Automatic annotation (TrEMBL):
This is Maltooligosyl trehalose synthase. Residues 11-447 form the Glycosyl hydrolase family 13 catalytic domain. Pfam families: Alpha-amylase. Coiled coil: none annotated. Gene3D superfamilies: Glycosidases, Maltooligosyl trehalose synthase, domain 2, Maltooligosyl trehalose synthase, domain 3, Maltooligosyl trehalose synthase, domain 4. One of its GO terms (molecular function) is (1,4)-alpha-D-glucan 1-alpha-D-glucosylmutase activity. NCBIfam families: trehalose_TreY (TIGR02401). GO terms for biological process: alpha-glucan catabolic process; trehalose biosynthetic process.
Length: 770
């Protein structure tokens, strides 16, 4: 199998299409990248910037350049020595504009008689034989807006097919609508009455049943061509947790690809591993991100930060937020599960739904993959019975129904048991990532996808153990620091983490900010001010867009479906104050000045660890410079590749840059590490911790990959307060070394840290060949 030594993620869209991506290939080679990694390129909803709303899985998107440009990019990459990794989306398709999706259009036109009825996951009986489409507004007489136009049913700009022989001359739109295989309903009814499976709570992304062989074949026809014509070297699978049978899907995909490199976008909770029977090389790296971030957090900051923004313990908070999801936007999924409980169970429907919702709420990971992960369901049963003792009897009845293997290995996975597994991940994602992560705000650099914010910091022993385990169990899994889904860019998080080293100063500043520009929600105010400090300087437009999205995701003081205008006005006034009021601006800029240099130290340290640790490092587009983005769409902004190309030229012919020189120091570290991994893979064949000794030994983290030694500084403000490195030494393995970043030479044995980190807070040492 051809495996990458590193990847570089490009976001392909109409404004940066496949031809534009091909033009970056010489730069990527110069940077040291091994594979180019593309966001989804199959035909998506027109105007889609992300590509996860695929409308035609059988073609490359013309808006993204089309098949010819895709083929040309792959050839250009291969000719330059780069592999190609492509993101694909098997779980769902985009249905926002039915006319753009031939499968969905046919389903709406023909209902159960459509060939594609088997492709979509519709509970026809629950809708009286019709698919409920939540599109109508709240006004009176909405059905009067239904019009028959050119053989279609129109509702404002929305267009729908009309079944054959169901429209007669003189019929009103409402009369025609009543005869269709779909029912247009008020958008608010989706939470409890939707009868097709979605991606999370997104009504415009309809689940697809790729477990059906012909559906798999047609949905992967273009992907099959890529491998048949040797255009692509590997695939990244979006959201496998939504599939009915992830293991079976990966087996079929392995056959289709001829055994190509495969990654899954899978969130692993601390201590959780991928099922051993999955035919893939690992995840997209959120689990590694969580480990790296916590290396640069000072555990001494936990108590004062806890006291500054009192909130309930995270485990209890997420129970409330997840239960809010099961009773809210995903209640229709809960009710669908309840309908599948057999009558022989003798459970009242309402109590059955209540118990199912509680089990989903108490589920400790994203999903199980029965028979794998049965212990997670057993844990959820115990937790649910403690939380809701009044439902103990119902939970005991449901347990064997949700895990048919309890009675023995001959058990068969029922539709109820399968669908429960597909649903638990939705609840976790919406309740934790998209709600609790915006409420648990003591230190927001910890609130990242795939992480547990209740785990505050990791010491060097914990990190060494995690990286050694990665080397032994998943050497080809991906390592990420920033992605298109991260809540904050890697360097935004790195600066916010510095607050753990100055908790008292941060708490005092937070109090002053809240006094000068109060918003009435102390927990969210902490998140808001941390975001501004972490991303500063940023435009006013970016700041306003972020706080509006973040506050509505928190779903506390304001909401997506019912914005609180009074609260949001105060919040936006506070953002304006950061730019316009000198007393507020000076507090922010003073804190930025205090945290900037140690934040850059954290950034370089985290980047070097990510690029050299076991696994395959991915550089998210543009993050070879400082990456101070916030949540999407902010993290999908255009990248100035010309500046980065010029940066490599400047590094080749100029002096070593200062750490504050516009991101050039990060470009230097990134390019040197990527080139070394690409050109000298034998130096990255193992993992061994490198010890330090002396007064400041805890401020060093170092490891030897088999000839390449990475060493970084951690907790730089604490180091400064303690008087610097003093007698601290890093004990290098025997041999002679040169630093790939600065060129400085070193001999094995104790090396004074003050010399090792003389130029930068990081070092990448290469053992000289005999």
């Amino acid at each position: 199998m051809h495996t990458p030594r590193s990847t570089y993620r490009l976001q392909i869209r109409s404004s940066f299409d496949l031809s534009a991506a091909a033009e970056t290939v010489p730069y990527l080679v110069d940077l040291g990248v091994d594979w180019v990694y593309l966001s989804p390129v199959l035909t998506a909803e027109k105007g889609s910037d992300h590509g996860y709303d695929v409308t035609d899985p059988t073609s490359v998107d013309p808006e993204r350049g089309g098949a010819d440009a895709f083929d040309a990019l792959c050839r250009t990459a291969h000719e330059a020595g780069l592999g190609v990794l492509v993101d694909i989306v098997p779980n769902h398709v985009g249905v926002a504009t039915p006319a753009q999706n031939a499968w969905w259009w046919d389903l709406l036109a023909k209902g159960r008689d459509s060939r594609y009825a088997e492709a979509f996951d519709v509970d026809w009986d629950a809708g009286g034989g019709r698919i409920r489409i939540p599109v109508l507004g709240d006004g009176d007489g909405e059905e009067e807006q239904l019009k028959v136009v050119d053989g279609e049913l129109h509702y404002y700009e929305n267009r729908f097919p009309i079944a054959e022989d169901t429209a007669k001359p003189g019929d009103t739109g409402a009369q025609v609508h009543a005869r269709q295989h779909y029912e247009l309903v008020n958008w608010r009814r989706a939470d409890s009455e939707l009868n097709y499976r979605r991606f999370f709570g997104v009504n415009t992304l309809a689940g697809v049943r790729v477990e059906v062989p012909w559906v798999f074949d047609e949905a992967h026809s273009e992907v099959r061509r890529w491998f048949a014509e040797s255009l692509v070297d590997g695939v990244r699978i979006d959201h496998p947790d939504g599939l009915a049978d992830p293991a079976g899907y990966l087996e079929r995909l392995r056959e289709l690809s001829g055994g190509a490199y495969t990654l899954v976008e899978k969130i692993l909770e601390p201590g959780e591993s991928l099922p051993a029977r999955w035919a893939c090389e690992g995840t997209t790296g959120y689990d590694g991100l969580a480990v790296v971030d916590r290396l640069f957090v000072d555990p001494a900051g936990q108590a004062p930060l806890d006291a500054a923004v009192p909130v309930e313990p995270f485990v209890h908070m997420i129970h409330g937020t997840k239960r809010g999801i099961t009773d809210g936007i995903l209640h229709s999924e809960v009710l669908r599960l309840a309908r599948l409980v057999p009558a022989s169970a003798n459970l009242e429907p309402e109590r059955s739904a209540d118990a199912i919702a509680e089990l989903l709420t108490c589920f400790p990971v994203y999903r199980s993959y029965l028979p794998d992960g049965a212990g997670h369901l057993a844990e959820a049963v115990l937790n649910a019975k403690v939380r809701r003792p009044d439902l103990s009897a119902e939970i005991d009845v449901l347990h064997p129904l949700l895990n048919p293997y309890l009675s023995g290995p001959e058990g068969e996975l029922t539709e109820l048991a399968m669908r429960f597994q597909q649903t638990s991940g939705m609840v976790m994602a919406k309740g934790v990532e998209d709600t609790a992560f915006y409420r648990f705000n003591r230190l927001t650099s910890l609130n990242e996808v795939g992480a547990d914010p209740s785990i505050f910091a990791l010491d060097t022993y914990d990190v060494h153990r995690a990286l050694l385990e990665r080397q032994e169990s998943a050497p080809f899994t991906m390592n990420a620091l920033s992605t298109h889904d991260t809540k904050r860019g890697e360097d935004t998080r790195a600066r916010i983490s510095v607050l753990s080293e100055i908790p008292e100063e941060w708490v005092e500043t937070l109090g002053q900010l809240n006094a000068l520009a109060p918003i009435g929600d102390p927990a969210f105010a902490s998140l808001m001010w941390q975001a501004l400090v972490g991303a500063w300087p940023l435009s006013r437009e970016r700041a306003h867009a972020y706080v509006e999205k973040a506050s509505r995701e928190a779903d506390a003081s304001t909401h997506w479906t019912a914005p609180d205008t009074a609260f949001e006005e105060k919040m936006h006034d506070a953002v304006d104050a950061a730019f316009d009021r000198s007393e507020v601006n000076s507090l922010i800029t003073a804190l930025v000045e205090k945290t900037a240099v140690p934040g850059w130290s954290n950034s370089l340290g985290a980047k070097l660890v990510q690029l050299t640790m076991p696994g395959v490092p991915d550089v998210y587009q543009g993050s070879e410079f400082w990456e101070t983005s916030l949540v999407d769409p902010d993290n999908r902004r255009p990248v100035d590749f010309a500046a980065r190309k010029q940066g490599l030229v400047d590094l080749a012919f100029g002096a070593l840059p200062r750490i504050d020189d516009g991101g050039l120091a990060k470009l230097l570290v990134t390019s040197r590490a990527l080139r070394l991994r690409r050109d000298r893979p034998e130096l990255f064949s193992g993992y061994r911790s490198v010890v330090s000794a002396g007064a400041a030994a805890d401020h060093v983290f170092a490891f030897d990959r088999g000839g390449a030694v990475a060493a970084v500084t951690r907790l730089p403000l604490g180091l400064e307060r303690a008087g610097g490195w003093r007698d601290t030494a890093v004990v290098l393995p025997e041999g002679s070394y040169s630093c790939a970043i600065t060129g400085t030479g070193f001999e094995g044995g104790p090396v004074p840290a003050v010399r090792l980190f003389e130029t930068y807070p990081v070092a990448l040492l290469v053992k000289e060949e005999a």
